Amino acid sequence: MNALITTVSGYVPPKVLSNKDLEKLVDTNDEWIKSRTGISERRLLEDGEGTSVMGIEVVKSICEKRGIDPTDIDLIICATVTPDYQFPSTANIIADKAGATNAWSFDINAACSGFLYALTTGSQFIETGKYKKVIVVGADKMSSIIDYTDRTTCVLFGDGAGGVLLEPTDENIGIMDSILYTDGAGQKHLYQKAGGSVKPSSIESVEAKEHFVYQEGQPVFKAAVMGMADVSEEIMKKNNLSSDDVAWLVPHQANLRIIDATARRMGLNKDKVMINIDKYGNTTAGTIPLCLWEWEKELKKGDNIILATFGGGFTWGACYLKWGYNYNE
Ligand code: UT7
Q1: Which residues have C-beta atoms less than 6 Å from ligand 1?
Q2: Residue ranges making up the domain that contains 308
C-alpha cells in the first residue's frame, strides 16, 4: 500500500509587501534583495490573524476539490513554527474550524523542513492501512516572528500555507521514499531566543527583541547548500534515478542561490525546478506545498518528483514521489 497525494491546495494572504516597501523600513534595496535571494515580494496576514486562518482555507479547499466532506478526514497534521498558541496545537484549531470533527490532529515543528517531516509521518498512517484520508498542512505566519527593523531577516520571509490529501493506492505511485536528517548543533545559528521554557516571555526578553527570528545567514547558507544538494543526490542514487528520470525538483524556497546549487548537483535544467520565491519569499513550512499547488496543472501521472529542504534545527531531507494524477482527468 502506498500513500498517494490525491489533492493539493494552497493559500496566500492578499496583502503584498514588496522590496520597495521594505526600502522604506530598513536600509536595503530591491537590487540587493533580488540578487542575493531571488525575492521580489512576499505576502502578509493581517494583525490578529493566526496561522490557522491559512490552514483552514487549505483544508476546506482540499475537501471541495476532492468532493469529500470534512468529516471524512481521519487525521490532520500541521507543520508550523508559528502556531496560533503554544497550545493547543494549530492543527486542533484547523480541524475544528474546517469542520473535520472526526479527525484527530497534531502539529510538527521542524522549521523549514516541517512539511517533509509531516508528509513522511502522515504517509506512514496510510501505508499501514490504519487511515484512508490524511491531510498534511504546512503553514507559517513568519511575519509574527520577524523584526521589521532587522534588514538581514525581514527581507527573507513571508506568510503562506499549502497542503495535500493523502489516500491509499495499490498502484506503484505515491510517496516512494524519504530521507530525513536532524543536527541539533545547528540551533545556535537559527532560532527564536525567548518564549520557550528556557527563557519564558518577560519585559526584558521583549525589550531585547528575543522573540524574533535570530539567524546567522552565512553558516546557515553554507549548511543549506551542502545539506540540500547532498540529500537530493542521495535519494536519487538510492532510487536509481538519473537526472533524465526526474521530472521536477520541488525545493524549499529560502534563497534562489541554494535552489540553483541543488539543481546543479542533481544535473537538472532550471525548467524542471519549481521556483516561486520571487512572489512569496520564504514561507517556512508553506514553501513546498505552495509550489505543488501552483504547478499542479503541469504535473503528469507517473512524474518522478523530488522534494528537498533545509531549515532550522538544523533539519533537512528529501522525498521521492511518483505523481498520481493528471489535472482535470
Ligand atoms: O529557510 C531557513 C534556512 N535559511 C536559509 O537558508 C538562509 C540562508 N542564508 C542566506 O540565504 C544568506 O546568507 C542571506 C540572504 C541571509 C544573506 O546573504 P549573504 O550573501 O550571505 O550576505 P551576508 O550576510 O554575507 O551580507 C553581505 C553584506 C553585509 O554587509 P557588509 O558587512 O559586507 O558591509 C550585510 O550587512 O550585505 C549586507 N546586508 C544587506 N544589505 C542590504 C545584509 N542584509 C542586507 C539587506 N540589504 N537586506
Answers
A1: 28, 32-33, 36-37, 112, 151-152, 155, 217-218, 220-221, 224, 254-255, 258, 282, 311-312
A2: 176-322
